[in-house]
Design a protein that fits this description.
The protein has about 625 residues and is mainly β. Helices cover about 5% and strands about 35% of the residues. The strands form twelve sheets. A five-stranded mixed beta sheet has the order 21-29-28-23-26. A five-stranded mixed beta sheet has the order 32-31-34-37-36, with no helix packed on it. It has a four-stranded mixed beta sheet with strand order 4-1-6-10, with no helix packed on it. It starts with a strand and ends with a strand.
Length: about 625
């Protein structure tokens, strides 16, 4: 069994959830679909390398005032001593795509996004020990208005009266002169101050592994780790009242912590060795579990764990180098690169690289703060940005699916394919614990329900029973959450089966928007935009999330579930929502909690080109109304 080490740093910078500026389902740009304009010259910076880039982002995370906000990026770095024997850790990134065979995933290096959401994939075998060297480089700031008072040295006019003499009949006369004097001046200005240290404190908490309480990373329960004195970092840990030994559940900004996790248990014969537990095999997640854990996870502080079972020779997919588990095997990567595109232009036409014999596809179904309720896969929204995973007609495909969100459940569905969830044999604990987990424990299925922190893994051999048709499997298949409003809000990807030799990368199909409902009396101005619209208020989202209406249109909020509110968070062109009366004739106020089963109708006031942002004031999911 091996010891595998990772060097992971948490960093802050903007994140674009729609980097390709399209929704292939509707054939629309972000301007056409949501009425939002690109944001130019958005700066992203790597604190490890010092590299800075300015990008055009089509849908960055934004705060309630519409300003670009930072995500939290977990980024992998090379250990000290590798590639040029650089002595310092966290200075040379070891970036990799989450899915090398994703057609849409941008370059994750300093030339691209400088990291991924979810963060680095932590991989090991059953029985391995994993050591994660973690560093906190969260440098987020916020504007603070400050008033300063200082003394200004100047001159003042001084007037005195002096008595006259015989020459003027003893009449007093005025004497005006300049004399030194000091004035107190008050100046108000805005500075960028660091966020409170509690908001920038982070940790890592794993699922699937076994670990001691000191390596749990779950605030406020982790005891101090007597093996990790604060040492030279004592001033940083003092900010969190940690004095002698570090605590893994509260790593302050600029500080470090070393986590140790094992895929098994210490051996009874030799505690320094790990007794493998095959039941730890599978796909799990790790995430921030510190003081502001929910806020941090919904800003991107989450990653995926893959524990391989080498005894599973039928379904397991491990594309790492057998003798060097730190690196991926170029034989299973497009063009031999873990960061490059899946297409090549070495010929006159753009072509796909030949698909791999086996591939690992990892997907996180989640939400992020600042997306107006967007439903995301791997930090992206809408088909054309979310994963389009490339496979071949004989590829062994290993899927790992993870869910995370404040309250949402999802379903995972692939068109044209089926699978069975593998599990252990036996009914007693020892047999379950040591079985290879290759027995099918579910009926074959093409849709599976899962929720926050749920994860599951399965394999499909393309061209066989669970795959598409074995005679002509090529084509593109939907791969998405089948909760309908989640699909509409962007949780839609695809699986693209290409010929074994690759071939020309022709344009993929695009759809058109569903037309608005038509009706004579409901038609208003704005090129056919109906004057009456309905928004369903669901558990954790508005459906539709983005609504286009004419000036003075009426919008009915249909409260489907437990109490929610509708509160404006910002608008342009001096637009506002004016409350009218609900359908029963009683006064309606969407700023108050509305029970399930009721409706409220509002009138949208403003001019064409305006936009209203709103949210549920209780659960903070968001929506947008564009006046067209």
């Amino acid at each position: 069994m091996a010891t595998v080490e990772y060097w992971i740093q948490i960093e802050n910078r903007p994140w674009d959830i729609c980097p390709h500026n399209k929704d292939r389902m509707t054939g629309q740009t972000l301007k056409e679909r949501e009425g939002i304009d690109p944001v130019h010259n958005v700066e992203i910076k790597s604190p490890g390398t010092g590299k800075t880039r300015k990008l055009t982002m089509f849908k960055p995370l934004e705060d309630s005032d519409g300003k670009v906000m930072d995500a939290l990026i977990l980024r992998r770095y090379l250990p000290p001593g590798k590639r040029g024997h650089h002595p310092d850790p966290w200075t040379i990134p070891d970036d990799r795509k989450v899915n090398p065979w994703d057609l849409n995933e941008p370059n994750p290096t300093d030339k691209g996004t400088m990291g991924t959401i979810p963060g680095p994939v932590i991989e090991c075998n059953v029985g391995d020990k994993v050591i994660v060297h973690f560093r906190n480089r969260d440098m987020r700031t916020h504007p603070v208005t400050k008033t300063t008072t200082h003394i200004v040295h100047t001159t003042c006019t001084q007037v005195t009266w002096e008595p006259g003499d015989r020459t003027n009949g003893f009449k007093p006369h005025k004497v005006v002169e300049k004399v030194p004097c000091d004035k107190t001046e008050t100046v108000t200005h805005t500075e960028q101050d660091p966020l409170p240290v509690e908001m920038r404190t982070h940790s890592l908490h794993p699922h699937g592994f076994a670990f001691l309480a000191v390596h749990d990373g779950a605030y406020p329960l982790s005891p101090e780790d007597k093996a990790q004195p604060v040492g030279s970092e004592h001033a940083l840990w003092d900010l969190l009242h940690v004095k002698k030994f570090k605590k893994g559940d509260r790593v302050p900004p600029a500080a470090t912590f070393k986590y140790t996790w094992i895929a098994g248990a210490p051996s009874e014969d030799d505690p320094s060795k790990v007794e493998p537990w095959p039941t730890t095999a599978g796909v799990w997640l790790y995430h921030d579990h510190s003081i502001c854990d929910m806020e941090n996870v919904t800003l991107g502080a989450i990653g995926i764990i893959v524990i391989h079972n080498p005894t599973d020779t039928e379904q397991e997919v491990d594309i790492r180098k057998p003798k060097n588990p730190d690196e991926l095997d170029p034989d299973f990567l497009p063009g031999g690169s873990a960061t490059g595109p899946v297409t090549t232009t070495r010929t006159k036409k753009k072509s796909y690289f030949p698909p791999p014999d086996k591939a690992l596809y990892l997907q996180l179904y989640h939400t992020l703060t600042g997306t107006k309720g967007g439903m995301l896969i791997n930090g992206r929204q809408y088909l054309g940005n979310t994963p389009t995973l490339i496979s071949g007609s004989d590829t062994l495909m290993r899927f790992g699916v993870v869910g995370m969100g404040p309250a949402e459940f999802h379903t995972f569905h692939i068109h044209g394919h089926r699978w069975a969830i593998p599990g252990p044999d036996g009914s007693d604990q020892d047999t379950i614990q040591n079985s290879p987990q290759i027995r099918a424990v579910s009926q074959f299925e093409d849709t599976r329900i899962f929720g926050p922190a749920n994860s599951f893994v399965f394999s499909i051999k393309e061209g066989e029973f669970f795959g598409a048709r074995d005679d002509e499997p090529e084509g593109e298949y939907h791969m998405h959450c089948h909760v309908l409003n989640h699909m509409d809000m962007g949780m839609m990807g695809s699986l693209l089966i290409i010929p074994e030799k690759g071939g020309v990368a022709s344009a993929l199909p695009e759809g058109v928007p569903c037309p608005s409902d038509m009706g004579g009396d409901d038609m208003g101005g704005g090129g056919g935009t109906p004057m009456k619209k309905t928004v369903d208020v669901l558990d954790s989202s508005f459906s539709p999330q983005t609504l286009n209406v004419a000036p003075n249109a009426q919008v009915t909020f249909n409260f489907k579930t437990f109490p929610h509110t509708v509160q404006t968070t910002g608008h342009t062109n001096a637009n506002s929502i004016t409350i009218t009366k609900d359908p029963n004739g009683s006064p309606g106020d969407v700023n108050q909690a509305i029970p399930a089963g009721q409706q409220r109708t509002v009138t949208i006031q403003g001019s064409s080109g305006g936009k209203i942002n709103y949210q549920c004031g209780i659960h903070l999911f968001q929506g947008t109304i564009n006046i067209t």
